[in-house]
Design brief:
- By secondary structure, this protein is an alpha+beta fold.
- Strand 3, helix 2 and strand 4 form a beta-alpha-beta unit.
- The chain has a single domain, classed as Trna Endonuclease, Chain: A, domain 1 (3-Layer(aba) Sandwich).
- It has 3 helices and 4 strands, in the order H-E-E-E-H-E-H.
- A 4-stranded mixed β-sheet has the order 1-2-3-4.
């Protein structure tokens, strides 16, 4: 399963839940997560999408830790079966 397939499914499922899965790009700051998830009620979290079994690169791990230190959740998604749980967790926050 390819990473872009998982990312498209995340976007589709987020829309079904009334959420936005915005492509997150930060020029000049490499290693940021792929998607910013915005949920009704003001909840926000980041999702880094990987192909099944892939791990974060060292820079991505560092960015994840930096974002989490600011109080935001960062999820690593590497399978479509994880999407529902991630979206439920974001909505519950």
């Amino acid at each position: 399963m390819r990473e872009n397939y998982i990312e498209n499914r995340l976007r589709t499922e987020a829309n079904k839940h009334g959420m936005w899965a915005v492509k997150f790009v930060s020029p000049g700051l490499s290693g940021v997560p792929d998607r910013l998830i915005l949920s009704p009620g003001g909840n926000a979290a980041f999702v880094e999408v990987k192909a099944p079994g892939e791990k974060l690169r060292p820079l991505q791990q560092r960015r994840k830790e930096q974002i989490e230190a600011l109080g935001f959740k960062v999820y690593v998604l590497d399978g479509i079966e994880q999407i529902g749980g991630i979206l439920d967790d974001i909505q519950a926050t």
